[in-house]
Amino acid sequence: MGHFPGYTRAATLVLLALLLLAAPARALDKTSIVLQWLPQAQFAGFYMAVDKGFYEAEGVDITLIHGGPDVLASELLEAGRADFATMFLSTAIQRRATLPIVNVGQFVQHSALMLITRASDNIETVDDLDGKKVGLWANEFQIQARALFRQRGLKVTVVPQSDSLDLFMRGGVQAASGMWYNEYHTLLSYGLEEDDLRPIFFSNHGLDFPEDGIYCLERTANARPTLPLAVVRATVRGWQYAFAHREEALDAVMARMDRAGVPANRPHQRWMLRRMENIILSDKVPAMGVLRQEDYERVRTTLMETGFVDDAPIFPEFYRGPVR
Amino acid sequence: MKRHGIAFRLAALILSCAFVILAAIVAYNYAYSRAIILRQSETNSRHLAQETASRIDSVLLSVQKVANNIAYSLEDASLSREDILNLNKRVIANNPEIFGMAIAFEPYTQEPERLYFAPYHFRSGGRIAFTMLGSPDYRYFYMDWYQLPKELEQAVWTEPYNDQGGGGVVMATYAVPFFRNQDGKKVFAGVVTADISLEWLQDMLDDIRIFDTGFAFLLSRHGTFIAHPNRKLIMNHTIFSLAEEMETPEFRQVGRDMIEGKNAFVRIDESIFGNERYLFHTGLEYGGWSLGVLFPRSEMLAEVHKLSNVMALIGLTGFALLALVIIYIARRITRPLTELSQSALEIASGNLDLMLPEVRTNDEVGDLAGSFKVMTNSLKEYIANLTTATAAKERIESELRIAREIQMGILPKLFPAFPDRTEFEVFASIEPAKEVGGDLYDFFFVDDTHFCFLVGDVSGKGVPAAFFMAVTKTLLKVVAEKGLDPGQILTKVNADLASENESCMFVTLFLAIIDIETGETRYANAGHNPPIHLPCGGEPCWIPPFGEPVAGVMDGMEYSTRTMTMAPGDILFIYTDGVTEAMNPEQDLYSDERLMRTVAEMPERFAPALVKTVNDSVAAFARGAEPSDDITMLAMQFCGKCDK
User: Fold this and answer.
1) Would you call B158 and A1 a contact, using CB atoms and an 8 Å cutoff?
2) Does the pLDDT at position A123 exceed 70?
């Protein structure tokens, strides 16, 4: 039930702090980053960059902090408990309204967010969702779905989706939210076959929102202008290493999940790493870590159209990452 | 082809039969015991699984009952905050199996001004602790334990979870929706939950040991491991992710059958766990969980293998013993046989004094050895007799030979017999048969002008015939020299022979006396073959017999004398039946006709040549066949007084 979710995370933070103190004193630029969710292969590139010393090579001594269902990365950023945070692009544009953050590097170029339906419910197209119960996560995870429903004029009953797929599995909803790299495989590991599922990818419906990117407060970017680029460069190397050495990366992921006491199994993380490769390595982007203006504009427009934001900054104000 | 002895064939045949029988017994036993063990294992694992399942179910059921009762009592809208808190606390106090209970209300239901109202009593350090759930950080409305019963409008067991606060203990929550009447309608008002720790489950399943390494495991509704001897799997893996990790997609079907609550005993192929296993799985009544009992086939069959091995060992030992016994028996039978066979070979080579191998067995081989002994003794005796008999026979034969020589010695053999006589030419020959015969011939002067010549044939053969012949010849000579007629001579000789002839032997005789000056010839015939008269330049003709009997049988028999005259150059040819009855290998007789033809075709009328020609003709006819009788011939050629 997770009534005391804070304990373990606090312990993790203490542990990390101890590790930090124990580290040899070197002339490194100390910094920290909040990864927006619990440890998993979604962050394999960061782990490898740490483990392989890519951050140190860039002169950065970085501390990885994990978010979770009750820990919002942007809040840690706001509270000054971390210099950097990973966020969905849509989340960041929303937060920008109240918190001056800038994107310093974009990694996930495609949207892995999806709705998953069962073949037995005969939802062959998006329009078949009309009148159905659809499980949606809170906040930014609803943006694409609501935009889609609006575009299609669908009337659906939105059921807030918990962190499990139990309601979907028991037929309480006909469609569930999921990440391609995570929940989709969870369903496969519940004994469902890919043939049993009818996935609806938002990326196939004009709503291909870039997801994980690295953000910091605008003032951090201004005050320490070389730091964000160093972090992004090291992270790019980390991802490249992870994709080239999958099993080693999985070892690192599994070890971190084990330490954090998060349920984990290797096949699931292997699947996740593969999908991360699918959504990070994109032909349309000149290089890893780059956010394209057109992607930004698409998300910004959709957010404004759907009313999630009233206004958003122009691209140069928002993006401070590498340019090609 | 290789030769195999009786011992080998006997042993091979019996042992191969025994081996087949033994193998069949062991194989059948193995198959049958295996089937029994398999059935028993299935029954046992079924019982074990079902018993375990019902034990788990009974715990779940008791928890469900408590939560259901609370939910029922909460339909009373008049309950105050204090009532609810007390109720909540009492449940924890009275139900040790329940770790914690929450009574969570819909927003603004119990207390209209409060979004969250969810008292939670739980065990902590041996005491009952209390907290109110619900905050912006913990929006319980979107938790499974709240949302599932609400959306599904029925009580549910949530998927087990790792309780972060409870030290990583696996917990499961039973959540029951409760409803209240609002404006006459039944409206969802909240959820009662009962949390239980699943540690006892793990302990219970740990105690289940099937064979050596068989174990039980428990799956949640979605296939997540709730209990498993490998703690790392618990809450981390589902049976499907395990299948993915082991790269055995076919194992997914087993997982699907399990989470569907099916009840089955299945064989798990070797490819999945590296050894063949059996799994019995059954669905639980509550919670949507399923229990599996998994054990390796090898362990299940260990006892059968042991039994079969022992059986095979006993069988092989018996087999070896049997082999030894058979070889021993076969050897015992065949060794005397071999020895007897060697002895027989040695006996065959003449060693009759060989010590026969001692065979004391009272069976067919013993009989054979006895027979061998009797045989050698009989052989020895026989050969001894034979040696004696042979010696005797040789002596007799030698004596006979001597007798024969003497017999032949009394016949005139020197030719020309009278080289100084030109009036006649006489020539005779005797070709003795192998046996002593009784032919005789003789010729001599009775006085100065009368020449007597005769040919006879004694009946029978052997020494008596020889003696009879000698007596006859002597008598003839003695009697003929008295100057009697041939008929008188024969009468006299017959009388003498017949008087003391106990054995009734007889002799045929042709006797003639020629006046060598005139050629007048008187002759008598006692049952002898008719001689041939070969006139000079004329056709030969038989001298017809008188029909007078053989001599030596009837006393007082009178023989008559006839007279003929031989012209100069005439030949009188006298012979015994050894000539006409000579046989060729086809048993044809030489015959009178052939003799007459031979004589008639003679180109040169000369006595010695005639005898030689007939002799050659008979020899050519016989073609080497052994003559059965003496072949005796005498040719008398009258030449007259003067030389021609």
Assistant:
1) yes
2) yes
Question: What angle in degrees, to the nearest 10, is found between the helix axes of A44-51 and A266-280?
Answer: 100
Amino acid identity at A234: A
Please give the structure tokens belonging to residue B292.
Answer: 């599996």
Which of B241, B250, B289 is the best mutation test for A, with the most CBs of A within 10 A? B241
CB contact under 8 A, B151 and A173: yes
DSSP-derived secondary structure for B376-431 = HHHHHHHHHHHHHHHHHHHHHHHHHHHHHHHHHHTS---SSS-TT--SEEEEEEEE
pLDDT on residue B307: 87
pLDDT (average), residues B68-93: 91
Strand order in the sheet with A60-66: A60-66, A29-35, A84-87, A213-217, A101-106
B203-211: average pLDDT: 87
- Please report residues of A whose CB lies closer than 8 A to that of B152: 167, 170, 172
Which pLDDT value is given to residue A2? Answer: 38
ipTM of the shown complex: 0.86
Q: Is a pLDDT exceeding 70 seen at residue A20? A: no
Q: What does the pLDDT read at residue B93?
A: 92
Residue B71 has pLDDT above 50, yes or no: yes
Q: Which of A103-107, B1-5, B136-140, B440-444 is the least confident region?
A: B1-5
Domains annotated for chain A, with CATH where assigned, are: 6-110+210-318 (3.40.190.10), 113-205 (3.40.190.10)
The stretches of A23-62 forming alpha helices (DSSP H) are 44-51, 54-57
Task: Please state the separation of Cα B235 from the chain's center in Å.
Answer: 70
Closest CA to B510 of B422, B598, B573: B573
